[in-house]
Amino acid sequence: MTTARGQVSEARSKLLSTATRLFYTEGIHSVGIDRIVVEAKVTRATLYRHFPGKDDLIVYYLQEADQAIRGQVDAILARELPTSETLRAIAESIAEGIRSPGFRGCAFLNAAAEYPDQAHPVHKAVLAHREWFSRTITDVLARLGEAPAELAARRFVLMRDGAMATGCLSDPEPICETFRQGVEDLLRLHVDSGALTDTAEA
């Protein structure tokens, strides 16, 4: 909801920022509407004026997270780096997130664990983000050569998921280093596979 000047409502912004902090740090199911209302310093009526229910607020929370990640990736793509450097830059942005203070894993994996029903709007929001990310990585890898990019992209996403899931359980530095090395191995394997394909077709 926006004001007459087209600005996002201050109450809505406060509700989203409060919900984002609490959902991410403490878990979605463990945080009730009353807690969000108190910490955002708004009334329940105000909350329901902006969000019909808690599920709607959760979906908006995930959509905000999705837009933030898309913005990071779009900024990397806009730099028009060589393809391998683009993938490394995306990987480094993931590593930076893992090393950031207060990191609690992937917001989308966390939400999917709490909402496993694939028909639920929250789960659908998770899948929409993951489909976009997988498609983006596939498109990047497709520019590296003739080798099929889909399998390599799935491997990248799996490595990313593993790094995000374990990055909050112990020292993030060796996890990030392992992730970066995995990306280097993936790039080498993908390029070599393309070379082998070209040789076989010749």
Short description:
InterPro entries: Homeodomain-like_sf, HTH-type_TetR-like_transc_reg, HTH_TetR, Tet_transcr_reg_TetR-rel_C_sf, TetR_C. It comes from Amycolatopsis speibonae. Helix content is 75%, strand content 0%.
Average pLDDT, all residues: 90
CATH architecture name of the largest domain: Orthogonal Bundle
Q: What is the name of the CATH class of the largest domain?
A: Mainly Alpha
Largest sheet: none
- In CATH, the topology of the largest domain is named Tetracycline Repressor, domain 2
Gross morphology is elongated
Number of strands: 0
What share of residues is helical? over 70%
Order of secondary-structure elements: HHHHHHHHH
**Low-confidence segments, ≥5 residues, pLDDT <50?**
1-7, 195-202
Descriptive account of the structure:
This protein folds into 2 domains: 1-51, Arc Repressor Mutant, subunit A (Orthogonal Bundle); 55-201, Tetracycline Repressor, domain 2 (Orthogonal Bundle). It contains 9 helices and no strands. The chain is mainly α and 202 residues long. Mean pLDDT is 90; it is low at 1-7 and 195-202. It comes from Amycolatopsis speibonae.
